Amino acid sequence: MSLPLHAQTRPVPEAAVLQKLPPVREVSAAEVAARIAGGPRLVVLDDDPTGTQTVADVPVLTSWTVDDLRWALRQDSAVFFVLTNTRSLSPEDAAARNREVVRALHTAAAAEGTGYVLASRGDSTLRGHFPLETDVLAEELTELGAGAPDGVVLVPAYIEAGRLTVGSNHWMRTADGLLPVGMSEFARDATFGYRSSSLPEWVEEKTGGRVPADEVLRVTLDDLRGGGPAHTARLLSSLRGGRVAVVDAVCDDDLRVLALALAQAEENGTRLLYRVGPSFVRARAGQAGRAPLTPAELRPPRGDAPHGLIVVGSHVALTTRQLDRLRERGGIAEYELDVALLLDEERRDAHIAEVAAAAAGALDSADAVIRTSRALVTGADADGSLAISRRVSAALVQAVRQVNATRRPAFVVAKGGITSSDTATHGLGIRRAWARGTLLPGIVSLWEPADGPAAGIPYIVFAGNVGGADALADALDLLRSA
Fold first, then answer.
1. Residue pLDDT, tens place only, 271-305
2. Would you call 243 exposed, middle or buried from its count of C-beta atoms within 10 A (0-12, 13-18, 19+)?
3. In what order do the strands lie in the sheet with 177-180?
4. How far, in Å, CA of 178 to CA of 379, rounded?
5. For residue 457, which of 424, 419, 423, 408 has the smallest C-alpha distance?
6. Fewer Cβ within 10 Å of end Cβ, the chain: N or C?
7. CA end-to-end span of the chain, whole Å?
8. What does residue 325 show for φ and ψ, rounded to 5 degrees?
């Protein structure tokens, strides 16, 4: 590249970023699975539901009672997710929720006689409560007697969605090339915005200078591909006092080398916390990437309506484009929740009831879309914007609950992270589920609810920031074909 990273304001050719990299060190998922067999369970505290979109046949909890956690620990899976939904919460509430989950998990793991290692799953475009969540987890583990973590390993890569880390710089793939994430629309998030695309500088920015960039350990592709697992394990074993390490990744093999290194470092006594994107979870759990589910693999839905419900809360530009393409394909009836009315206490409930009744009635003849108005409404500051997001999400949940009470849809698609979480937990009453796979390669997770009023209804978790313009329409085509 002719310009330093901080000067990049537009996408650059992918070859300019990925040229002259060391050759890939191939590691199979089976090798990782064999290495971690019998080891501690990987427990992913997911700050929204979209972290499940790279795995298959994995338990998911939206509740964290000791009984729920013991159920998950008893399942034949190297990993399970606990949906904390903290990205939608204030910092104070996010901290309290993390503490609550870890205390219950510690009790459950002791009762089941098993160990665990924690991954705090954040957004691959670097949004979320960092360093708050890893700080709180470290404090709780120390207080519970599990030992203060020696290091925090930051791995935001999401391979399928084109979020790659090279030379400790984080990039996102666009139609025009690779863009430094600090130049993306996600970096301008009203609540979790940032400037830095260099991960060490991002850590310094997010910690308010508490962790200087030059004190962050950089694990590069030269380390992973050239040095391999043993060398990388030695680097990770050098972490002390909660020091942060940032890790490069361009493909699954890079993450599987890291997984082997982590297993070795932890066996040697190094205590680590992970702050990660979705792809790390699959590699660390010893799973290979799987092809999307086919119509034949989709179980017949047990809803009583012939059509499905699509709930759209995400406001990013990509979601708007995907809605446009879905309209072009047809077969939908569309209903808008007006954000201005949702913020009006006197008119809110009547507006939600009207939209829900119309959507339920439409399920006999079309897939019903309930979406928020597309104009983004923000507050005076980050906390105000987050409060508005929670109000809007609560309205979507109320509408879903009313639709499902009237007609059980053939399937439910939730578009957007906060939307997906609140719809699952509060709209459909899901406590335990299985993430069965994806509808599109590496994105768009299908859950099979194991309990509650949505049991038997396929639930599709669709992040706001993934897929091409046709992705939503393609996912609907697949569901319709089943």
1. 999 999 999 999 999 999 999 999 888 876 566 88
2. middle
3. 163-166, 169-174, 177-180
4. 31
5. 408
6. N
7. 47
8. -70, -35
